[in-house]
Records
---
Amino acid sequence: MKARVHVFLKEGVLDPQGKAVASALQTLGFEEVLSVRQGKFFDIETSSLPKGANEERLKEYCKKLLANPVIENFKVEVIEP
Amino acid sequence: MKARVHVFLKEGVLDPQGKAVASALQTLGFEEVLSVRQGKFFDIETSSLPKGANEERLKEYCKKLLANPVIENFKVEVIEP
């Protein structure tokens, strides 16, 4: 399976890194920039799994390792089963 | 405009962070994991720009700040013009 997983801060959680990027862009002259939020993503390749197990498995990766459930949400996307 | 920009290492550039994630997943019992590559993304909101200028502008953000052109590629995506 090929998949992409996005991990991003929950709404309401401060994102100082995103804020820094926004003000850096403004300083560079891009004054139209209103806000930036930064997240990370993972491109994951696995050997094939039982049919229909892909999404569930990706969610397990997130819960066990990739995301911090206190402050982060995630979104999984199977690109090639 | 609302947009999402993905920044990721060029093919062939080593990704130790992704490698660490892959072996951590394997250690956790997810032995099907073959490889992981990690990237970052930015959700950007701007005040409205002249029609047709959106993509070009996002690429400028990448070239000037968001991506390191020596080792990273980027992909811009306008979500709401």
---
Amino acid sequence: MADSTATLSVGLELRNATNPDAVGSPATQHGYSYALLNLLQDDVQATLLHPDSTLQDAFQPADLQMTENTWAGFIVGGITAGGELDSEDDVTRQKCEALVRQQIQWAAHLGLTSVVFTAPEKELGLNFPRVVNRSLSLLAYSHAWLRVVVKKDDNEAWKRWNTIRTLGGHNPKLSVALELGPDLPDELFLRQWTAEPVRTVILPTTSFIANTKGFPVLKKSHQVFLQKLMELNVQFLISAASLDESLHKGGLGAYQQYIRHLHRMRPELDIVDQFATGYHDYLQSPLQPLMDNLESATYEVFEKDPIKYQEYERAVYRALMDRPDTAVETVLMVVGAGRGPLVQRALQAAENAKRRVKLYAVEKNPNAIVTLRARKQSEWGESVKVVHCDMRFWTAPEKCDILISELLGSFGDNELSPECLDGAQRFLKDDGISIPESYTAFIAPMSSTKLHGEVTSYKDLEHVETPYVVKFRAVHELADPQPVWTFTHPDRRVGGVVGIDLGSPNFNIHNTRYAARTFVTATDSLMHGVAGYFEATLYKDVMISIHPKTHSPGMFSWFPIFFPLKTPLHLPANSSVTIHFWRLCDARKVWYEWTAIPGSAKGAEGSQQPPIMGTASALHNIDGRSSWIGL
Amino acid sequence: MADSTATLSVGLELRNATNPDAVGSPATQHGYSYALLNLLQDDVQATLLHPDSTLQDAFQPADLQMTENTWAGFIVGGITAGGELDSEDDVTRQKCEALVRQQIQWAAHLGLTSVVFTAPEKELGLNFPRVVNRSLSLLAYSHAWLRVVVKKDDNEAWKRWNTIRTLGGHNPKLSVALELGPDLPDELFLRQWTAEPVRTVILPTTSFIANTKGFPVLKKSHQVFLQKLMELNVQFLISAASLDESLHKGGLGAYQQYIRHLHRMRPELDIVDQFATGYHDYLQSPLQPLMDNLESATYEVFEKDPIKYQEYERAVYRALMDRPDTAVETVLMVVGAGRGPLVQRALQAAENAKRRVKLYAVEKNPNAIVTLRARKQSEWGESVKVVHCDMRFWTAPEKCDILISELLGSFGDNELSPECLDGAQRFLKDDGISIPESYTAFIAPMSSTKLHGEVTSYKDLEHVETPYVVKFRAVHELADPQPVWTFTHPDRRVGGVVGIDLGSPNFNIHNTRYAARTFVTATDSLMHGVAGYFEATLYKDVMISIHPKTHSPGMFSWFPIFFPLKTPLHLPANSSVTIHFWRLCDARKVWYEWTAIPGSAKGAEGSQQPPIMGTASALHNIDGRSSWIGL
């Protein structure tokens, strides 16, 4: 059971209420934390549209005088946008627009925290989106919700939302109030919403069913979707026709009690999510362990991973068992030893395997060396040699049997494991073993309004061309990940010290990569970037992975990596998108470049059209201008 | 004949030359002003791609030692990008890329002003575009040209260029070197280039034909296209196989002489273009005549228009002749009289029509009033009354028969003629005449890399949401203009002083407009914005127009107006784009909002698909946030 102290906001709408008291009092009384009230009554619009009337005649919100100041913070204002905003007649249209404007100004005057527009369920004209987006610029402190109804046999709801927010240039003041009908559409059309800024979930009382005792409960399909949405920290709103409505037992309070019950009963967070608390959808710059020295706290966090070191120990054990059991000791080298967790595990593996070993712990960080030397003295003894040196430039006194490293980033090679191991493999015996022996990067197109908003909020080029490490939450993967490239160690193509031959224009060419992968999306969607993962083979079948389909259970050392797109790409249902990805190098740095090119929608015969080159997003991070990893 | 003192730069390429002297000396000798030389010879690439070779082996540009310093400013460097940039093999691809990088660095070292990439004629991979765009970031002071061959039966050349510059994010360092084959494609595919940054036109000697005496000349089709390109200030390059080549009489010098001849013989500029010298593709903010007082020099320029005032005089004459010839004098009012050109013309029309008139000259600009009073005293006498007042707030002593104004902007209503005349029509007799009696705004989708570059160079929102007055040159209209809306005067819907009733939320609602217009484009294109024009009916069939198809010959008072798009829209051949346009008002200002939504390509049966809403460009200038005209 999840933390029951988490607060959950559940509001009430009484659709026949005409003043704050009429909804505010019963809401409070039945345990609701806020209320929704339309700022105008429906008949006002009829008055307004009479040819002789002016706005002054129509807009007389006398019922909305707030009888207590407290209502201002309690009431969310419903905006009547009317069906005539897209009238052919200029004056009718403009009267409706002026009426919206007056409601917005009225809401600002009252100090309401939020206003709610209701998206038309039929086809959109362009004036409704324009008026909604214009209203956002009039709202200084308030937010706007767009109420969108999700129901069976309507797969267009997301498209209407997408049009409105695209026309508004992705204004962060606009969020979604998702109203769930009694029957939900296919799960494909629900998943789209997990990448959107869903602020509120609206549940009409008619979307509840009665349990055996007559009290309101939700169908299983609704419960599953709500639990997913609860992870996004949504609030709720119960919408009833009137105070006297009695569809279910238990009165108006029973609905909020049931929602709070569902909230309490949601599944426990798994260990990775517990570890990630506070990091969901938070952008972190990837580590630069080669250029910077990691801090003690960073080591401390990663050393606690319950899975990673267990798998390394298994891999070392298996590798040792595969080496001939000779009289001479087996030479192990841990390169990038940090504060010693791999040294500890390697020694344990040797003990389990009953092998005599000599172990070199090579580390360039002078601060970590202090810890290593202390542990050698207190724990490890003479079989461990602590070497303070950058592995790329070390002259080893002998060659080793097993070269152990943990230099992987979220994208596998993005913390320069390939370059480091090119240097380190100089002191690996010809028949020696590298742990890890290979790693593969994976990509998938993804949607996330939240992450797009974060990277564009800086209004510069740099932030939209930088990969970030992110624990995904309000993210929707648009297709399954595909592998882009693999690095294998030792790389016997690398002779001598090529990895260090900085003067050569051939330098590091063998560690460049390029791949293009085509993905097909099932529903209409807006692609905001590329999700990146890795799988690594430590030794034979000992693997670690952060690929969603093969993720090592409970391993928390790596979150996925997010490569943004500057401009979101609209992908129609059943269309393709080709992602091009490069890993590039010069003498001082390694960087990624990427772009995405949409293809046409699938033809009737299922044949895929070629990508439409003119609609390519620009190349990101040309020449590493915005982001790179220093050698 | 055009100004023969204009300088024209014509260069020479000798395709078999291997060092600067070999091309530089003959180029100078035969009257060329620069030369193109490949920085590497073809066989270098073969050396490089041998598995055992390194870049050092391959890149030995000994032949490129500049024998004289002067060659650095004379030589343009050809870059060998090779056909292997899109090889499947990582190392081959990277060797080719490193070779390009060395050439670019070499060109920078030599201080060459430009380098030339040659676009592949077959389908593009993504590495060629990436390497070209990466090179731009390595070129500190030099520019790059992309050599694109235009020839019969290849309609894809523009699409290849568009892909390359789109992937590069529209980098202004990259321009086009357009090579014309012996036969040109359909004019549709030539016109595309007029909106592009064509810096150089390359003419292989094989694209020339021999005249009756055996000297090189160009076909008529080439001449027509070149004359269009010459307006864009291009330079030329003659490409010959070798020094000894003798396809035509007259030697190598004959080609540049012929080009210079064509340049001298190009048609005289018409009066509008002469007037516009220095203003082509230059962004001007539209006037704000209501908020600002025009300067004397501004009046001076516009008073010189040879056509506008002639048409106004015709209109006033016709209107006077249509009024009953009674004993009492006809009352004319010129509102916004400026320094008096319309007063003068109206008096002339009255004289021609032999009508006695009393004329009120109403002007709000206190500086212009000085001139009006002086002219009344020295030229016009007692029949003219000079009134210093804003026409919207004037209390006229009597009503007039004919209300004359020249308040039109490039988009018709964009200098607030509707609002001004709403105020002024209070003192027009019920059967009185307004000159102009109506005006209509027109829009067309357009492409212009130059103008897009200008508005985005500021890297802010304001400049991409502001309309500009521009004399178009490097602009390609993607479809014929269509009317969006019309204003007619007097507007009898406007009762009393509604136009001035600033307190009313209904204020000025009747002057708001909305229209959506769909255009079909013939070729693939990149839409950068919307071109705006107007047609005005002064009186009955007396018209003035800046619509390209109906432009009043010789009238120079108005250039077109350009509404930018933030992000260029790619439009496939035979597809549609729907432009939505609004004219909106509040109590203090009037502004435009606009957006464009591409549709699908035409189906086989010619049926047009609906617009793809998710690909809409964002609404521009929401709530007038970036640009507006003050009331």
---
Amino acid sequence: MLKAKIFVQLKPSVLDPQGKAVTNSLHNLGFDKVLQTRISKYIEINFDSDDREDVSRQTTKICDSLLANPNTETYHFELEEIKS
Amino acid sequence: MLKAKIFVQLKPSVLDPQGKAVTNSLHNLGFDKVLQTRISKYIEINFDSDDREDVSRQTTKICDSLLANPNTETYHFELEEIKS
């Protein structure tokens, strides 16, 4: 079995209003060393397959077709073996 | 400067309805090797400080007080130096 560990992040040029809100809250709570906060999605998908090439191709398709918005987001992923 | 890379994940015992919905969508799209999907938050916070011990303590406080729901979520983080 393989696990795909996928990060879907806003492009650096895109404003992250949720991150901005967290930064403001943290300043209000007294955390004044905080400069910036970026909030992203982290997705783990378990595959019933040990074929790294095939799982990598499927994960790319999944990100392109469902998980990431190509207009505003980028993604990267790594594969990890799951010991069952 | 230091960057805290924080993962906030649902406890394994807690149902992840968003992940279940993604798994179902993927099956409908023909990705039948997908067994399970878990969706989590990944948060990066930049600190204007090089004191790892202090930043680590602040990040723990931030997770406990704002980012993670102690009833349903766990978190872990690592610190990384940012070259400016």
---
Amino acid sequence: MSRPAGRRDRGRSRRDRSRPVSVPVDAENPAEPELGPPPDLPDGGLRVVALGGIGEVGRNMTVFEYAGRLLVVDCGVLFPSEDSPGVDLILPDFRAIEHRLDDIDALVLTHGHEDHIGAVPFLLRQRPDILVVGSRFTLALVAEKCREHRLTPRLHEVKEGARVQHGVFDCEYFSVNHSIPDALAVAIRTEAGLVLHTGDIKLDQLPLDGRLTDLGGFSRLGDEGVDLFLVDSTNAEVPGFTISEREIGPVLDGVFHRAPGRIIVACFASHVHRVQQVLEAAAAHDRKVCMVGRSMVRNMGIAAELGYLDVPDGLLIELDEAMTLPDDRVVIVSTGSQGEPLSGLARMARGDHRSVRIRAEDTVILASSLIPGNETAVFTVINGLTRLGATVVHQGTARVHVSGHATAGELLFLYNAVRPSNVMPVHGEWRHLRANAALAALTGVPEDRIVLAEDGVVVDLVDGRASITGKVEVGRVYVDGLAVGDIGESTLGDRLVLGEGGFISITVAIDATTGRAVTKPTLSGRGFSDDPKALDAVLPMVEDELSRTEAENITDPHRVAQAVRRVVGRWVGETYRRRPMIVPTVIAV
Amino acid sequence: MSRPAGRRDRGRSRRDRSRPVSVPVDAENPAEPELGPPPDLPDGGLRVVALGGIGEVGRNMTVFEYAGRLLVVDCGVLFPSEDSPGVDLILPDFRAIEHRLDDIDALVLTHGHEDHIGAVPFLLRQRPDILVVGSRFTLALVAEKCREHRLTPRLHEVKEGARVQHGVFDCEYFSVNHSIPDALAVAIRTEAGLVLHTGDIKLDQLPLDGRLTDLGGFSRLGDEGVDLFLVDSTNAEVPGFTISEREIGPVLDGVFHRAPGRIIVACFASHVHRVQQVLEAAAAHDRKVCMVGRSMVRNMGIAAELGYLDVPDGLLIELDEAMTLPDDRVVIVSTGSQGEPLSGLARMARGDHRSVRIRAEDTVILASSLIPGNETAVFTVINGLTRLGATVVHQGTARVHVSGHATAGELLFLYNAVRPSNVMPVHGEWRHLRANAALAALTGVPEDRIVLAEDGVVVDLVDGRASITGKVEVGRVYVDGLAVGDIGESTLGDRLVLGEGGFISITVAIDATTGRAVTKPTLSGRGFSDDPKALDAVLPMVEDELSRTEAENITDPHRVAQAVRRVVGRWVGETYRRRPMIVPTVIAV
């Protein structure tokens, strides 16, 4: 990647490129701990705060404030990783705007992926009449999601090219391509300047639906002068260019051609164009298609109804019917591409699917990315399928997936089209943000005009200059089962300890007046050892300790419990070198 | 990869290659459940059983039996993944040979990686005088490991080219290259035939130490006739060829050239040639090197002492001295390339390392693979380092790592050199084994001569034909802290439940004769909720239930406990839709 020539203006200068670009950590860097609450926003200034999505991949939500009013772009969920065990979803932290929900002029959704719309119902629960703005397909998915939450959102459909005033925010929408149809970028005009937010974006030059990312439109914005450019960082570390989604088609065709029996394709339930290509390969090879997985059936139903998915007549059948056809006439399109243990595909891999038994002639295609953190789950599925004899094709062995996010080469096109005065990388972990910042700098954006602002860091655009002015508290809001927000670091810390070492409980009743143990202590371990005698040796020590506390006239159950905890904890550390949670319960009777 | 021309003999035939190779699942396939204990081994037959390492990556251990005697090849550990939480190590299951330890003629170690030697002390604890055979470097690492376990092994050093009779087994050793020096393949001759076991292998044609994999020797074995070929499957899914380790050097050199400040290189603590190249780059750029991490210091000390690592005079310094030098004169070589949370590198990334504070000018190189399952940990380290401003170079962004295992193209060379009658893929998960089997078939090995035998599956070589004859029980033996084998599926299952949902304990004392509760029930949750009132609503229900059990004259503490468990379990499911472990303790006083 060499730096393309181009106009350079608005205070930008060429820099020495003999050394690799590194964005210096300065006093404004959020890694420094001293950031406090921001000052009042000066008149005519625009404030930007991410409540999720910067410093992480997921739960994207960015709040823009101008003249006392708020515009929210996206409201997604983050799927938990091993550091938040047992949790179902992680939401953006709404606290910074909870007291100002009435100030929201609109919630703009750039596209319909869960990490951009998944938290919408949770926000609407707090103020149901927020105006929700998005493209036709995005809003169809949101409406369905809200229906499941028994909410009726106020929807406002926009198309690329539309320019709409939402309260004080003058918003213009641009087509972008991504791994879901009908994605939009949004330009936000206020007196403070022109801001462009890419949403999730790629630059597929031969998109399956012919809907190009509007680079010309971005260039016109660049001519007008973009004061702040918020740019998708997901693939900034990846050099070069992503091949076109269209190139998956011939690969699928080749796999279909060679498959002797059934074909099972797993992909994301919202990837309409991927499924479109599967349908076309199926039709070309005279196979019928059945879809399995609730979200796949639902989303493809919506996509077909709205015309985003073109389904040849008679191609789709139900699974029951598919089971009656010859194997080489069948394609099953399924969820479960990330190894989700409850998905149809994982059940097939374990041999416990309700209807589908994997056989040696089956070909399984994982036409999807492998999201970091899911490797073990995905490989477990692949191993299960191959153990049963199936041929498994995945992105590690064939080009059956392309990413939906612009790689470094494409991002350079964006920077050179937009020529922004200030840049704020969004959507990514720190490694992605820095890589994106380095690309911006390569195209000539001065390093002090690139703001690396993780969740909660306040960026103010004042007099054409973006700078970090403070930080609001942004934590993680966990959804576990039906409850939102009752789980925090204490509970998760306990889960991590329990998950690593289990616990040992010691229960004893003491006489409330003498402190004498009136029962033999009950010792019990869970998640500690399979050996039923594992705790036998510590029982006499506990009894000795209880004799001691009695002798010292200790009658406070808490103090007795502490003494017992100490004895058991020391013993288990010395004997086993393990750290189970020690849970003493002392009842005074 | 097209199939090279070559001699085809020993019952092998060309096959139709117009369709992709799939190895059929037949009645012998271990995925079929009906395999039972094997019959007696016929006279003159050779039996092969893996006690670890097939169907998984790690804890390699293969047992060969001939004429009532045993030869063991490798004895390694498996590092636990998320399905075995809290465990330190997983050992091969020795049960199948535990009653026959005196029959072992030798334990042959192909090389010094933990997944090949890590369980040696645990086997020697059961019979300390087993003859341990290996190359010089391998034995040096084993001796050090045994010293830490206070064991003095009986060592027998061999070199490539050596042919040694170990009891009834006539063993010949061949040089192979891998990601550690001094690796060996072993050919085992008995009256049953000639078996070749690759160990871990690659075909670097320009190895840093000039020590080539002895393809010519393999070819001579092929001329003699290899009856069974056990082949490393790790990279069988990866098409093409691995570049030479030597090509890392110029990449390191380029990174060193551009690094403005300190350089920190993390790699595997046994990767002598990788470290060698770091030392050379450091010397070329006038930097001193200090090593941190216990295993790095230990292994490189051994390697230097034995002449496997060439350390220029005065190059190595201690960390204290390094801290006094200018930043651009320092290289730190560290462990922690897999994101291990207690490693020096992870501490630096979190900002809590004892001496090293990461700064914006630092360059960190992860010169290592990313082992599946470690992604989250490694990316956490990379994000931490980049957040602090460091430039991080890793295999995703530069060619700073090459694999130590033969990829598909190299494996074809092996098959074509050896021309085996029977093939048994080893070292790999099912996806790797099948990919390896497909390569063997492509070179002309008949599909019914390729045995896919996971751990415990018994393969007998009789009359020149290898076939599956049964299965012995092979489980996972877990080491957690000081104890070996007391943790099983029950404990791990409890840990998984506790790690996902925590527990709710309910403790109550009842009168032993009336069943009346003599205390108010104590309810307590750990890992359940941060909300101190989370369990308040269920207390009256528990009290009601206790009144009911009292009214029914139930005095058996177990029955009362069951009743309480039911009430709390139902309530928490309905109220929270969560599944914590419910732990009632009822004491009769």
